[in-house]
Design brief:
By secondary structure, the protein is mainly beta. A hairpin with a 3-residue loop joins strand 15 and strand 16. 42% of the residues are buried. The chain has two domains: 121 residues, Gamma-B Crystallin, domain 1; 106 residues, Gamma-B Crystallin, domain 1 (Sandwich). The strands form five sheets. Strands 3-5-4-7 form a four-stranded antiparallel sheet, with no helix packed on it. A four-stranded antiparallel sheet has the order 6-10-8-9.
């Protein structure tokens, strides 16, 4: 079963169901766990701090997922100065909203950051799709906004050359539609809309790509990796929602 918990933000209180997290006791958390100090991330989480030293200042602990604006990660915009990273997680910080501008990837606890973060991705540390040798495992699909799986040439001026990985057992924390179902890019798979140009498909895995949000519009089903969506019926730079299945 899943439980509903209270999410305390800056000057507001919101009830949110901890989708995808079993009801296992007090250790369960939701997308954003609010504390004044003392945030400690679990293995798959990160904690963000306003202090320049990890562990100091107002903080939030974030579950795996995508946080397109400061209002979604619970601290004021341009205020994060340190990050604690769980042992199986990584943090991808962007200067601007919606995963745009200069990007910083953190795989370990880091302090002394310039306080300019406006959007965040919390990913599995193993999902290093920026590496040209990255190969997704069973149940995983890596999506790229350049053809030929190019995630190595990120351009902060255009926000292009980026990639993320979605899994058949992931649940979108903002638009929960079931495991492996990602209803929109901004909140559910961490890229801007209509930018996917290629995808690596893991073994025994199917990626179902929809032209429109909420699993509507033209559909493209892929059982193997595709280096150029421009050759497909769905077309290049059109995908707005994704499903991932695996036996």
């Amino acid at each position: 079963m899943y439980k509903t918990v209270t999410l305390v933000g800056l000057g507001s209180v919101l009830a949110l169901t901890a989708c995808g997290i079993p009801d296992g006791g007090d250790s369960d958390v939701v997308a954003v766990q609010s504390k004044v100090t003392g945030c400690v991330p679990g293995a798959s989480q990160i904690s963000i701090f306003q202090g320049s030293v990890v562990g100091l200042g107002e903080c939030r602990t974030l579950n795996p997922g995508f946080y397109p604006t400061g209002t979604t990660f619970g601290l004021p915009n341009d205020s994060i100065q340190s990050v604690s990273v769980g042992q199986s997680a990584r943090a991808v910080l962007f200067r601007d909203d919606h995963y745009f501008g200069p990007r910083t990837i953190l795989t370990m606890n880091t302090g002394g950051l310039v306080p300019n973060t406006s959007s965040i991705r919390v990913e599995r540390n193993s999902d290093n799709c920026q590496s040209s040798t990255y190969a997704p495992g069973t149940g995983a699909v890596a999506i790229y906004d350049f053809p030929n799986y190019d995630g190595t040439a990120y351009d902060p001026n255009t926000g292009r050359g980026d990639c993320t990985v979605v899994h058949n057992d992931d649940v979108c924390i903002w638009v929960p539609s079931g495991a492996g179902r990602f209803a929109n890019p901004d909140q559910c798979f961490g890229l801007r809309n209509d930018l996917i140009s290629s995808a690596k498909i893991g073994p025994n895995t199917t990626g179902i790509f929809h032209r429109d949000a909420n699993f509507t519009g033209i559909v493209q089903v892929l059982h193997t990796s595709q280096p150029d969506f421009g050759t497909l019926s769905i077309g290049d730079n059109t995908v707005s929602s994704i499903e991932v299945t695996s036996p």
